[in-house]
Amino acid sequence: MNLMKKETVWVSRAMSDSTLVKAITCDELKTDPDPIIETMENSRKGKPMPADRFPKRLHGEYRDVHIKKLPDIFLAGGFWVVSAACADVLCQFDLGQTALYPVEIFQYDKKTRVEGDYFHLAFGEVKNVFEPDETPDVRVASALRNPKPNGYWRLNFTLSDGDTAVNKSALEGVGLWIDPSLLDIFFMSDALVQALKAAKLTRRFGLRKCRVVAQPVGETP
User: Fold this and answer.
1) How far is CA 96 from CA 22, 92, 175, in A?
2) Does some domain include residue 178?
3) Co-location of 8 and 24 in the same domain
4) pLDDT in tens, 38-51
């Protein structure tokens, strides 16, 4: 029983959930877009970036859209953002080079603050854990989305517990990471997920249990 619990790893489909994309932007996307876009892409790939590369202020994109209560994880201006409650739990765990940077969010007028405190979730850790040969319905993503000749793997959005196979290296190291062979997915340790569950913060993470297999690291497609 303890062994089963110890060998639990979770996959999050939050990055594939279009309802988490909010109509929020930042001035830098208009004034100096290239560094901001580079930061977005690097963060999604799990490449650590310093705080000064992330916008400190975000605001509503449309005049006629009033930003109401935001979820505990969402995409804003191309950046993944979490609530203060979520950040409080995350910072209790070993995140390695993944960082939480404070960000203020305003309405379209850039003066009225949206209720709550928020943090950029700056992904900064990668682990090669995914086993495509042991995972059903996995496919190669369109090469238009990435520079690799054969693309990244993409998981089926309608995942069930146990569909996603990972090797045992997923049980070691940091509690939250990106697998460089997968598109729009991140992984979390069981200890971290249980803490988020206890705080009632997991609803929008789209979590599913992985199946840990005794296989070598899967090859990039």
Assistant:
1) 28, 12, 8
2) yes
3) no
4) 999 999 999 999 99
Decide if 180 contacts 94 (C-beta within 8 A): no
Closest CA to 100 of 110, 87, 112: 87
Q: Tell whether 103 and 143 lie within a shared domain.
A: no
pTM: 0.87
56: nearest Cα among 34, 79, 88, 74: 79
Taking the C-alpha atoms of residue 13 and residue 116, their distance in angstroms, rounded to an integer, is 24
The pLDDT tens digits for 166-209 are 999 999 999 999 999 888 999 999 999 999 999 999 999 999 99
| 74: in domain | yes
Q: E strands, 69-197, where?
A: 73-76, 79-83, 99-106, 118-122, 139-140, 153-154, 165-167, 176-177, 186-189
